[in-house]
Amino acid sequence: MVELTGCSLSLDEAKRVIYGKEPVELSPLSMERVRKSREAVERIVKEKRVVYGINTGFGKFSDVLIDADDVEELQLNLIHSHACGVGDPFPENVSRAMLLLRCNALLKGYSGVRPVIVERLAEFLNKGIHPVIPQQGSLGASGDLAPLSHLALALMGEGEVHYQGDVHQTLTVLSKENIFPIQLQAKEGLALINGTQAMTAMGVIGYLEAEELAFQSEMIASLTLEGLRGIMDAFDEDIHLVRGYPQQVATAQRIRDYLQDSKLTTKQGELRVQDAYSLRCIPQVHGASWQALDYVKEKLEIEMNAATDNPLIFDDGEKIISGGNFHGQPIAFAMDFMKIAIAELANISERRIERLVNPQLNDLPPFLSPQPGLQSGAMIMQYCAASLVSENKTLAHPASVDSIPSSANQEDHVSMGTIGSRHAYQILQNTRRVLAVELICNLQAAEHRGTDLMASKTKQFYEEARKVIPSITKDRIFSKDIEKANQWLQQTTLSTLIKPTKTKEETTNG
């Protein structure tokens, strides 16, 4: 059980709720803050004070006063008019993450919603009712208005939801679960949609997968080092300590750990003096990607516990401020940074693939073919990897440098953070497939060298991978192998096979 407080949700807890379906409970202290915040909104309505979002229009209509009798219709109209997302729906786990993050944000007690709104979000989570939410249509400022409106529709009994492995009309599922649709009251529609939970949820899913893939990339690179008889001197701890980046030091240490008893790796001068950059600079390149991922993690954990709607209610309603916490710029930057970091793992992987298949760069069979000439072997797999890497380069263009004014120029600078988060996830999928190709190739290279000469840890990984990817004894439809390897990597946690060794710094710091 994960207790939500609005202030302490971690990525590890989010992972348990999103993937492990661990139930959530609401902190009583936080729920008391929610009740007090709601009381403030109800006083404002009763006293007929003019406050943006409670009894005014929205955006450019912020100066239009709404009659007290119309405040509920105002919220209904807001959700209906803003639910204009388009395109394929977000993956179901992203929808689940959005419910979690929105629930946690409202628990902070600055939004003025009734407790039932927060309770219903938690109930949807615990019963596995996940709104169908189109991916496209958010500018990433004024909040993720379109995606979150589709989430709000589900609370109202409208739209569609994922439920028990299929898509259903929301009202049908609510009836089955004896849940009544909510009729939104003053401020509640705006509080539900004015936030960054779509881009942040997509970012959380992307980060969790990226973190695992980054660990896997080091193991895959280690197998390539064996297949190419790489020089281990370049991974000596002294080299990395004198530069000073902890992530670079950690990457080098993990690779030394994976390869410590290998009889395939070499020493400086044994076969050649030095390796190409794609082998020699693995700690520097992968380590830099880890630096970026650490930055992303920090920003996501702040945003997961942030009050991001507008206006915000302070001092029991004595201070209500209309600001801009809904602006997604911090997450937009983080997502663009993650795009570049993951794309680089693919870039360097593709260069290692080239070194595995190009007979001018190694002493392996040309293109790892079982019968060079008659059979093409891995030749076109390298083409596929190169294509994905090139596609990543276009997707890695930063979304955050773009902005289009909206709402009659009232909202004249936006973040495009949701686009950045979606593109980061696309890059991640492409990168995993590039690494899948490298894995197929280095398994074949290791087999050619002699698996009995492999390090004990890389051999263990080799044996697990071979259960999914058979040896290349004849040309076949390699698309199927790439997809099998991709799915295996997506579903496999490296620590369940090989537990990464902590660095001295990590051990000292606990």
TrEMBL record:
In terms of superkingdom, the source organism counts as Bacteria
Q: Give the EC number(s) under which this enzyme is classified.
A: 4.3.1.3
Q: What keywords are annotated for this sequence in UniProt?
A: Lyase
Q: Does the keyword Lyase apply?
A: yes
This chain belongs to which protein, by name?
A: Histidine ammonia-lyase
